[in-house]
Amino acid sequence: MKRFACMIGVVAVVIAASLVTGRAGAGDEASSIKDVMGKLHKGAKAPLTQLKTQLKSESPNWAAIQGETKEMVTYGSSLSKFDPPRGDAQAYKALAGNYYTNARALDQAAQNKDLVAMKAAFGKISASCKACHSAHKEQ
Question: 1, 37, 61, 117: which has the fewest Cβ within 10 Å?
Answer without folding.
Answer: 1
